[in-house]
């Protein structure tokens, strides 16, 4: 995977190293598009949580779960069935927030991607 996608193995700068980020992705399909997104934002000092919609296909779930085997800073979980624009979206995101908050990493900003097709929501959590 690392030979196909541009996953960095060290921070691009000292400033980025000192300013780690946390990402939560709520996903349900299209692993290739998710890999492109991750390869665009991935840096080893950042933390990633991928919450998979419980309705997602088994092959998709397996592909996403492999990410946590390849990268120590990517955590993958399967959440309940998600109905977009419903409370279940928050349940998936909250699961990632709980995981990321327990980490010893001192990330500075948190970004949520509810689906790859939507725009990002950014929130500062001191």
Fraction of helical residues: 25-40%
> Strand order within the widest sheet?
3-2-1-4-5
Q: Would you identify the CATH architecture?
A: 3-Layer(aba) Sandwich
Counting H and I runs of at least 4 residues, what is the number of helices? 4
Q: How many separate domains?
A: 1
Largest sheet: 5 strands, mixed
Average pLDDT, to the nearest integer? 84
Distance between the termini: 33 Å
Q: Whole-number radius of gyration? A: 14 Å
Just give the CATH class.
Answer: Alpha Beta
Number of separate strands: 5
Q: Structural class of the secondary elements?
A: alpha/beta
Large-scale geometry: globular
* Unreliable sequence segments: 117-121
CATH third-tier fold name: Pyruvate Kinase, Chain: A, domain 1
List keywords for this structure.
4 helices; 35% helix; five-stranded mixed beta sheet; Pyruvate Kinase, Chain: A, domain 1; 126 residues; single chain; alpha/beta
Describe the structure.
- The chain is an alpha/beta fold.
- The chain has one domain: Pyruvate Kinase, Chain: A, domain 1 (3-Layer(aba) Sandwich).
- It has helices spanning 14-17, 31-41, 58-70, 87-102; strands spanning 21-27, 47-52, 74-78, 109-113, 121-124.
- The protein has a five-stranded mixed sheet with strand order 3-2-1-4-5, sandwiched between helices.
- It is globular and about 40 Å long.
- The N and C termini lie far apart (33 Å).
- Residues 117-121 have low confidence and may be disordered.
